Amino acid sequence: xxxxxxxxxxxxxxxxxxxxxxxxxxxxxxxxxxxxxxxxxxxxxxxxxxxxxxxxxxxxxxxxxxxxxxxxxxxxxxxxxxxxxxxxxxxxxxxxxxxxxxxxxxxxxxxxxxxxxxxxxxxxxxxxxxxxxxxxxxxxxxxxxxxxxxxxxxxxxxxxxxxxxxxxxxxxxxxxxxxxxxxxxxxxxxxxxxxxxxxxxxxxxxxxxxxxxxxxxxxxxxxxxxxxxxxxxxxxxxxxxxxxxxxxxxxxxxxxxxxxxxxxxxxxxxxxxxxxxxxxxxxxxxxxxxxxxxxxxxxxxxxxxxxxxxxxxxxxxxxxxxxxxxxxxxxxxxxxxxxxxxxxxxxxxxxxxxxxxxxxxxxxxxxxxxxxxxxxxxxxxxxxxxxxxxxxxxxxxxxxxxxxxxxxxxxxxxxxxxxxxxxxxxxxxxxxxxxxxxxxxxxxxxxxxxxxxxxxxxxxxxxxxxxxxxxxxxxxxxxxxxxxxxxxxxxxxxxxxxxxxxxxxxx
Amino acid sequence: xxxxxxxxxxxxxxxxxxxxxxxxxxxxxxxxxxxxxxxxxxxxxxxxxxxxxxxxxxxxxxxxxxxxxxxxxxxxxxxxxxxxxxxxxxxxxxxxxxxxxxxxxxxxxxxxxxxxxxxxxxxxxxxxxxxxxxxxxxxxxxxxxxxxxxxxxxxxxxxxxxxxxxxxxxxxxxxxxxxxxxxxxxxxxxxxxxxxxxxxxxxxxxxxxxxxxxxxxxxxxxxxxxxxxxxxxxxxxxxxxxxxxxxxxxxxxxxxxxxxxxxxxxxxxxxxxxxxxxxxxxxxxxxxxxxxxxxxxxxxxxxxxxxxxxxxxxxxxxxxxxxxxxxxxxxxxxxxxxxxxxxxxxxxxxxxxxxxxxxxxxxxxxxxxxxxxxxxxxxxxxxxxxxxxxxxxxxxxxxxxxxxxxxxxxxxxxxxxxxxxxxxxxxxxxxxxxxxxxxxxxxxxxxxxxxxxxxxxxxxxxxxxxxxxxxxxxxxxxxxxxxxxxxxxxxxxxxxxxxxxxxxxxx
Lengths: 507, 507
Ligand SMILES: [Ca+2]
Ligand SMILES: [Ca+2]
Ligand SMILES: [Ca+2]
Ligand SMILES: [Ca+2]
Ligand SMILES: [Ca+2]
Prior knowledge:
The structure is a homodimer.
Chain A: E1 12-14, E2 24-27, E3 30-33, E4 43-45, E5 54-57, E6 60-65, E7 74-75, E8 80-81, E9 108-113, E10 119-120, E11 124-129, H1 135-148, E12 159-163, H2 176-189, E13 194-201, H3 209-216, E14 224-228, H4 229-232, H5 235-254, E15 258-262, E16 267-272, H6 280-296, E17 300-303, H7 306-309, H8 313-317, H9 323-342, H10 353-357, H11 363-371, E18 379-383, E19 393-397, H12 403-412, E20 417-422, E21 435-439, H13 442-447, E22 454-455, H14 458-461, H15 466-481, H16 487-490
Parallel strand pairs in A: 11-12, 11-13, 13-14, 16-17, 16-20, 17-19, 18-19, 20-21, 21-22
Antiparallel strand pairs in A: 1-4, 2-3, 4-7, 5-6, 6-8, 9-10, 9-15
Helix pairs in contact in A: 1-5, 2-12, 6-11, 6-15
GO molecular function, one term (chains A, B): hydrolase activity
Organism (chains A, B): Microbulbifer taiwanensis
Domain SAF (chains A, B): 10-81
């Protein structure tokens, strides 16, 4: 058996299987004896690494030896450490040109053209709660339509989704947490995958329906209605009023038809969750290739999960199209350093137990693997969580790495398709936007076959190249944007994963 | 028309209705002319109050005039301010003795005696998610039972509730936020209102199923089962495994029978939400009387919502049975000062827009009105959020004021009945524990008749005294603990209000 060596400069390689001490593996044509047990997909030193010396993977330092490490020894938390964080940002020093595909050869998909000109990939109706106190009413309205069978008469409507959350009150009305929630609700209310929206509040919450309308410049109309439970006279009256309002929206929503729309109007959110040691070199690299393709077709890619780029953000600042863009990224990094510091959390300690079990040791190692999924395009702009994305090309939207919170922000920002890489296996979906699951290894793909869309594990076995896998992903993006259901849609995910980032104190 | 004057020392009184400037109102037998418009239930100065002078309500300073105020003038944010916060704690200086009711005369209810000796008021099965990633699977399992009709064969089972939340990953595994979530999940898993529990994880999350079992000393068995989605091989397999495990629990759960249990085994959570200017003198005071009665019957009362006692905590430290107990409360107040400070929120700024529209101006005013609902008993102990309550009598459990978050902690701590006062109208329920709604005013009671259990508004009209209303509440607690459904149970609230307090950074 041979090891997987990602970059010629690396002093570690990956074990393809769980191997006991004493195993002999092929290493550059010679036999290397493992001096410790090594779990599958974990790192093995391919030469001696002295205490304090850099551990190199992806050709870059992912951390430092905390003990002398022998050739053939398992390398993980017990003998390496993240080390200090002092990057050289080198703003805009390596901005790649975009190799646009000729206009006549550009791809298109079948989507919904909304009245305001935006392009949708699904045709849902939404019930948006301003506050946890209205979630039961919102879900009761959605359940009415799910159980009554009335939607069978409106086949062009993909469904009615109730977006519930735990916030909206017990918060200041003049801080960052409030503004973040407001941006998130605003982004969903205006999302092109909704034909119509019903907004429901309790009446006395911090996130007032009327404040939301006023501050976001929204006006109600036939396809955007609002009500409160207190104003309706209680639960049953509010449910009935909501059912009536949505019933009135159904014929207009059903009249929406798909039409050909250029792929340049796709906004792809890239995301990873439950990464393993293969994620960086298989699924993330292939998704990066697909992202680069979409950018070449004139589209937009939203790359996020700020804690997961920490330790490798200096590679992004080099690709920023302007110093202001690079500075915005550095500002978000500083914000995160403050946010985690006041909350007593280490920003360089992000790999989850699952990540660690999968062989990832440090945040830099995870970050370099995670960065692959955004591709290699120039960085056009940096956005706040749930801020409306206005650029084409690759952009960064600030968010935590936690999947439901991050994707909620990406969709609020305008993503109309999501690609999600996973090594351990993800149970996630994101109504009203289709989520496409990319397995980093074939064992996972087989084990959770119904939950996964594309197997990127074949890259390791040499079945296809990263670029070929990226092309497969790009074609699947077009097909799913055009109406084909993704795995998580077939499993009806997405009713419980709307999770606005709650910043600040709950009071 | 006369004004409502709560305490003889007060220099403000309350207007019963919206009154325009120039209205003449009765004031101690003389006519007082209103010099400004006054909204219903808002404060009116009954004598001139000079700038800087204390505004007195409940006989205590609720704030200070920020301008000279004339007799007959509306008193609110525009002319008063909260002022500085420097209380004298006077530990244990006023500890009331408990006037226990003779054992032979003590009340009882019909409850469920669990194998470990604890007393339940409902007989649910639970599906508990460790992480947001398993919520869709949990809800799909619950939906299977709700839709299949199979529960009709198990009439003693109140239902199967899926407890979903937004957390469980994107978090440190060694901080306060993690420990808080673990205590919450532990409290629900062991709650006596559950005959059986199925715990579901994804597999790679921060809040690992196995860590939870180990750190909480839990062992699986016929009525406590666990699974992960990754371990089950995906969504459909996990749903099927969950359905099978719960199906096996149903006959045992259905065999549980109610029996007579002393009221001393009731643990009452008191809570308020959407308060108005009447809340303090009607619903909260009456609930306080019921809480005092339960303590006299040997029971337990959990009083919470730390931000809402801020500014009046010195009245509780006086009633603490020991200096250590008083100090624990002061420690939580200090913790809150830090928590709100690092998050840039003012702790003395808690009244929500709804509270303010209802006439409450400062946190002290709200706190004094809120404190009424805990009653007047000695304070036996102070607990962390979701910490298991081991005392009898009145205890304090630290929590935010936000209703779903606070009640989730109270139930995790062991509450088996909830009483919830509201002035603006609440849309809340708390499976597996019945929640009883107390309206602070009769207009609300009529307007949201199906959502409310008891009208406490008659106290203002002289229909019944605070003590008589407290006795009504106590009798209703016994009846509902014995199986009668509360208003929020009839409306099927409680599937969306499980909201563990998320402390700290989302990463
Ligand atoms: Ca939620
Ligand atoms: Ca990730
Ligand atoms: Ca993620
Ligand atoms: Ca309250
Ligand atoms: Ca509350």
